């Protein structure tokens, strides 16, 4: 596993030599009785300002030369990150000398891509944090920060190297009063979490780097549908499911409130995060997207209800009520709820009572115009008149804020398809349906509607859907029979999201039936 260091810098020892598997195996057998303390001296294992002449481990394979070159660049990156400019060697061309975050991201990305490089990189990190002349100096602290960030992303799969890493962290954490000891303890925590939660998909984001180098959990804002947010801390391996539980506790939502999830919102793009996805991965993914597209937008991790199962909410939970209220308001404003102009004016009047207070002749029409801009769908705003909103506001004059909120949500819930997630789709597969459609998915099944219409053109329960197949830009749904059934092909960039929603509602139904049958079987005989 370890590559024997060259004894002298002569032509034979510095010339790159490649051995085949048989030759390597013979060398290993020949060294079985060798004195490894003489071969691998203390300098091999301990900190060095000088560049490595060769990788610490044997990098076998067809691309061995390329891997060795990358391994040396990884060590160069460690030195650069620590503030040392090696006299020889070179780093990655994509990185500026003072861009520490990009250095970290590129190095950890290489470790994620190649297991051999991951093993080598950890040997290098252990070497550079061993027998450091100044344990609390800047160079050692920088190396330990690199260690902590790497431990939160990827762990070595080689058990020998993993055991060696763990032993190193335990030894260095024995003195918790030094900076080295504190970083070693933090690195051990990150490592243990990554071992349990498995490797990440992406390197750390800029925000993650800024938190981890201070030995702190990642701190990020989580937004709600009323535009409010809460700051929440989580570790580098935290999954969507774990963070949802933390957010629920943070805002006081009852633990039994089900169906909530996190959504990646980037401008007009929205995507539900799967339960086992790492939140830190989402942060890096959208940070990279913004950088590559030169977009000024930033990721908003949004908390809202995804699965609506009757009775939809607990009437005694005021937190859940407000969450669903503002989610309903957002659905109306975002044109995801079928609405006539008169209904939009009625709902705007309810919001005016809440925002502007009780009706008064002193309220200017400009204020009602602001209400229209905030609470009426964009395509209706030129047709909604401030005078009509003012008239509805006057009609609601005796209602309290809570009564207005209850009436608003009651109106939304009167739609038979309330709780459906609405997707804009196109179809050209059949002439019997319009081209522009809404696809509504809820606990009862899948419903196809004309855009902005309340009555579905056709609905299918989940038991009638025999196949659904998403691709990058299309979703195919087959109903009743694979051979003689009805097939629909929808054009949508959210095909995967729709498929996951169908799958999750199906699981809810199966679990409900299982519990129902289990309860029936336990009933005592009459």
From TrEMBL:
Annotated ranges, domain MyTH4: 47-213
Annotated FERM domain residues: 218-513
Q: Which GO terms describe its cellular component?
A: cytoskeleton
Please report the stretch or stretches of sequence annotated as the Ras-associating domain. 221-308
The biological processes this protein is annotated with in GO are:
signal transduction
Matching Pfam families: FERM_M, KRIT1_FRMD8_FERM_C, MyTH4, RA_2
Q: Which SUPFAM superfamilies match?
A: PH domain-like, Second domain of FERM, Ubiquitin-like
Q: What InterPro entries does this protein's entry cite?
A: Actin_motor_Myosin (IPR051724), Band_41_domain (IPR019749), FERM/acyl-CoA-bd_prot_sf (IPR014352), FERM_2 (IPR035963), FERM_central (IPR019748), FERM_domain (IPR000299), KRIT1_FRMD8_FERM_C (IPR057096), MyTH4_dom (IPR000857)
Designated name of the protein:
Pleckstrin homology domain-containing family H member 1
Gene source species: Geodia barretti
């Amino acid at each position: 596993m370890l590559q024997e260091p060259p004894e002298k810098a002569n032509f034979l020892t510095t010339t790159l030599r490649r051995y085949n598997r048989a030759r390597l195996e013979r060398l290993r057998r020949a060294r079985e009785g060798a004195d490894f303390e003489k071969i691998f001296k203390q300098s091999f294992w301990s900190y060095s300002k000088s560049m490595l002449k060769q990788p610490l481990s044997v990098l076998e394979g067809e691309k061995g030369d390329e891997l060795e070159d990358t391994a040396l660049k990884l060590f160069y990156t460690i030195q650069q990150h620590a503030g040392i400019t090696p006299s020889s060697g070179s780093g990655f061309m994509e990185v500026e000398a003072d861009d520490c975050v990009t250095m970290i991201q590129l190095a950890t990305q290489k470790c994620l891509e190649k297991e051999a490089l991951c093993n080598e990189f950890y040997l290098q990190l252990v070497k550079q944090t061993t027998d450091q002349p100044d344990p609390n100096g800047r160079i050692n602290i920088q190396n330990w920060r690199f260690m902590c960030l790497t431990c939160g992303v990827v762990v070595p799969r080689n058990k020998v190297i993993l055991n060696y890493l763990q032993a190193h962290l335990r030894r260095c954490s024995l003195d918790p009063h030094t900076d080295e000891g504190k970083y070693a303890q933090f690195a051990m925590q990150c490592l243990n979490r990554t071992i349990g939660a498995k490797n990440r998909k992406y390197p750390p984001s800029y925000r993650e780097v800024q938190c981890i180098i201070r030995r702190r959990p990642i701190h990020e804002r989580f937004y709600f549908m009323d535009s409010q947010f809460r700051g929440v801390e989580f570790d580098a391996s935290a999954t969507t499911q774990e963070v949802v539980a933390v957010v629920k506790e943070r805002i006081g939502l009852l633990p039994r409130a089900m169906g909530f999830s996190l959504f990646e919102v980037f401008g007009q793009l929205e995507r539900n995060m799967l339960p086992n996805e790492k939140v830190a991965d989402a942060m890096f993914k959208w940070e990279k997207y913004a950088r590559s597209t030169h977009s000024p937008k930033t990721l908003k991790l949004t908390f809202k209800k995804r699965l609506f199962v009757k009775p939809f909410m607990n009437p005694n939970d005021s937190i859940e009520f407000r969450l669903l209220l503002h989610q309903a308001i957002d659905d109306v404003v975002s044109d995801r709820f079928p609405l006539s102009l008169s209904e939009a004016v009625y709902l705007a009047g309810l919001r005016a009572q809440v925002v502007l207070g009780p009706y008064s002749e002193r309220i200017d029409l400009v204020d009602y115009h602001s209400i229209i801009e905030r609470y009426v769908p964009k395509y209706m705003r030129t047709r909604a008149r401030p005078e009509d909103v003012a008239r509805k506001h006057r009609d609601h004059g005796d209602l309290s804020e809570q009564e207005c909120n209850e009436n608003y949500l009651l109106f939304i819930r009167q739609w038979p398809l309330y709780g459906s997630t609405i997707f804009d789709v196109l179809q050209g597969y059949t002439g019997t349906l319009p081209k522009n459609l809404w696809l509504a998915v809820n606990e009862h099944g899948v419903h196809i509607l004309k855009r902005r219409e309340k009555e579905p053109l056709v609905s299918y329960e989940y038991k009638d859907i025999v196949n659904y197949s998403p691709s990058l830009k299309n979703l195919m749904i087959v109903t009743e029979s694979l051979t003689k059934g009805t097939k629909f092909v929808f054009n949508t960039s959210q095909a995967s999201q729709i498929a996951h929603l169908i799958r999750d509602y199906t699981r809810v139904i199966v679990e409900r039936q299982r519990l129902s049958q289990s309860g029936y079987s336990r009933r005592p005989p009459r």
